[in-house]
């Protein structure tokens, strides 16, 4: 509609899968995938300007609990889709899944500050020179390389 919208957020709940994760997770991933596909296709005229960042508000434990689900943990994934994105790759450090590589022997280690992903989107796509105005305590770091150089 060309109303000047620059940023929007959407909450897609239901991921707190303490029980039956093998069942619920499959459904949730399918719904998320279909929704992202539909959104991206609906905005096909704007793909070069569009970026979508998918992030969870919390991570899950790596190993299942007694109810075939997972409990709250940390470490997770973020996904970036859209114009200029260097897709088809995993960025960041991979800590490994061996018990001794896990944080507190239970959680996937956090290796990338989520704010650095948002900072790169804002500086690369919105021309923001210094993301520290939005994230004052974010330590400067090397760019992740989310976007192809213009």
Sequence-ordered SSE layout with sheet pairings:
Layout: H1 21-42, E1 51-55, E2 59-60, E3 72-73, E4 78-82, H2 114-125
Antiparallel strand pairs: 1-4, 2-3
Strand content: 5-15%
The figure for the number of domains is 1
The overall strand count is 4
Write the H/E string, N to C.
HEEEEH
Oligomer: single chain
Structural class: alpha+beta
H/I helix tally: 2
Largest sheet: 2 strands, antiparallel
Strand order of the largest sheet: 1-4
Roughly what is the average pLDDT, rounded to an integer?
89
Task: Name the poorly predicted regions.
Answer: none
Instruction: Compute the CA-based radius of gyration.
Output: 17 Å
Overall shape: globular
- Report how far apart the termini are: 27 Å
In short:
The protein has 150 residues and is α+β, with helices and mostly antiparallel strands.
Question: Could you explain how this protein is built, in words?
Answer:
- The chain is an alpha+beta fold and 150 residues long.
- The protein has one domain.
- Helix content is 23%, strand content 9%.
- It has helices at residues 21-42, 114-125; strands spanning 51-55, 59-60, 72-73, 78-82.
- A two-stranded antiparallel sheet has the order 1-4.
- The protein is globular and about 50 Å long.
- The model has no long low-confidence stretch (mean pLDDT 89).
């Amino acid at each position: 509609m060309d109303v000047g919208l620059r940023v929007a957020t959407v909450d897609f709940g239901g991921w707190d899968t303490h029980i039956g994760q093998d069942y619920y997770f499959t459904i949730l991933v399918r719904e998320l995938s279909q929704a992202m596909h539909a959104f991206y296709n609906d905005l096909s005229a704007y793909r070069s300007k569009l970026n979508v960042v998918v992030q969870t508000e919390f991570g899950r434990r790596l190993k299942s609990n007694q109810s075939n689900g997972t409990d709250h943990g940390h470490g997770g994934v973020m996904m970036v889709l859209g114009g200029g994105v260097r897709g088809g790759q995993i960025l960041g450090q991979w800590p490994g899944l061996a018990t001794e590589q896990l944080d507190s022997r239970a959680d996937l280690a956090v290796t990338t500050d989520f704010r650095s992903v948002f900072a790169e989107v804002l500086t690369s796509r919105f021309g923001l020179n210094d993301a520290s105005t939005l994230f004052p305590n974010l330590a400067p770091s090397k760019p992740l390389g989310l976007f192809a150089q213009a």
